[in-house]
Amino acid sequence: MNGPHDLGGQHGLGPIAPEKDEPYFHAEWEKRALGITLSCGAFGAWTIDESRHARESLPPATYLAASYYEIWTRALETLLKRHGFVTQEELDAGHGLQAGATPKRILKAEMVAGVLARGGPCDRPVQTPPRFVVGETVRTKNFNPETHTRLPRYARAKVGVVEAVQGSFVFPDDNAHGKGENPQWVYTVVFDGGEIWGEGADPTLTVSIDAWESYLERV
Amino acid sequence: MSGHDHGHDDHHPDNHFTDMEARVKALETVLTRKGLIDPAAIDAIVETYETKVGPRNGARVVAKAWSDAGFSDWLKRDATAAIASLGFTGRQGEHMRAVFNTPDTHNLVVCTLCSCYPWAVLGLPPVWYKAPSYRSRAVIDPRGVLAEFGLALPADKKIRVWDSTAELRYIVVPERPDGTEGLDDEALADLVTRDSMIGTGLALSPEAGR
User: Fold this and answer.
1) ipTM, two decimals
2) Chain A residue with minimal CA distance to B123?
């Protein structure tokens, strides 16, 4: 979707303002938001792709004004309601009012170290060989789906070169919407700055994305 | 440990009970009372990223790459396995790639679409990495971005920006500073800043690192 999250190349968003010796958290609630988000992810009820889509589906003005832990929290509420774990009435009341969906797993303290150390690999085998080879010139597709995609707007309909075949991975455009993992080959595709930004582009710049095979076509 | 008390930090003058504090507290309360989450698990997650998983992990990877050519080669070919050999694995480090700065090319990592970041080696990302300004500008004006970090690269140095659009997570291996011959890996790791592994900085010189 062409949402507020797709930020590459936008202007007017201000200075970077790095904070010296920045703490990991700026408020106690941020710690809880991190832990709650990871704990609920362990339910097994939604995928990382669905959760990313929930975040980018926030109203643009909300998204751009929110800190990242706020974005996570708002999206998590959406996911918990969508999958029947809580209701808005319960969130408003601040306590449980009714039974809800049952998670596949509840993350207990003693499970945390193992779960974090394992992570969630999303490479998957595919039966077909890669369609593109290293060094091949490709063009990214031009599309504007209202659904989840990981092809940023600035890199659509651009000509680049396949630099690496990175393996085969869950296809987020499908997986975010419950259509299955449908893994595809992923390629690192590198573009000259001038191809992406045109006139005035930094002549020393190249930019790469990691692109699923169906984002690419032969030139 | 169950130190999930809220709002008792007296060090911030504006530490009133904010909307987000209330919102997150309500969420945690509902989920806990419904038996869906374990507050002690939240404590354990926070403790992990406050004390165990942080940029010192990545600094050890870089130091070993500087001091051990065989490891450096492994890191180029199979970063996930090479990094795992040092004990760093797991969430947001499942599929690692290491990109090496050279005299010709400086690497910079961003996630324009969200906040993808190599947690297993760098820990939790700083606020600026997740914020709209960095995410919008890194791909179109990297020199302007680097200038705001106090980093001015030679005009003819190539800049390669890696937009983390898939599940690969990138760590930059900065160039080894001059004057570091004879330093052991721990001393080398002291020179490797978080920002140097994102690409918004360089490794420290031995004088600066001391």
Assistant:
1) 0.98
2) A24
Position A50 in a domain: yes
Contact status of A29 with chain B (Cβ, < 8 Å): yes
pLDDT tier at B6 (50, 70, 90 boundaries)?
very low
Across all residues in chain B, what is the average pLDDT? 92
A200 touches chain B (CB under 8 A): no
Share of chain B above pLDDT 90, in %: 90
Distance CA A70, CA B111 (A): 18
B165 contacts on A by Cβ (under 8 Å): 150-152, 155, 209-211
The first and second tokens of residue A73, run together, are 């929290």
- Domain of A109, in residue numbers: 28-118
| The one-letter amino acid at A185 | W
Q: How far apart are CA B88 and CA B95, in angstroms?
A: 12
- Residues A65, A115: Cα–Cα separation, whole Å: 32
What pLDDT, on the 0 to 100 scale, is given for residue B12?
A: 47
A18: in domain: no
Among candidate residues B2, B67, B85, B116, the one labeled active-site is: B116
* Token pair for B195: 């920002």
User: In chain A, which residue's Cα lies nearest the Cα of B170?
Assistant: A210
* B162-193 pLDDT per residue, tens: 999 999 999 999 999 999 999 999 999 999 99
The tokens for A178 are 């419950």
Does residue A42 contact residue A112 with C-beta atoms inside 8 Å? no
For this structure, is B116 an active site residue?
yes
> Looking at domain B54-209, which CATH architecture does it have?
Alpha-Beta Complex (3.90)
Rounded to two decimals, what is the model's pTM? 0.95
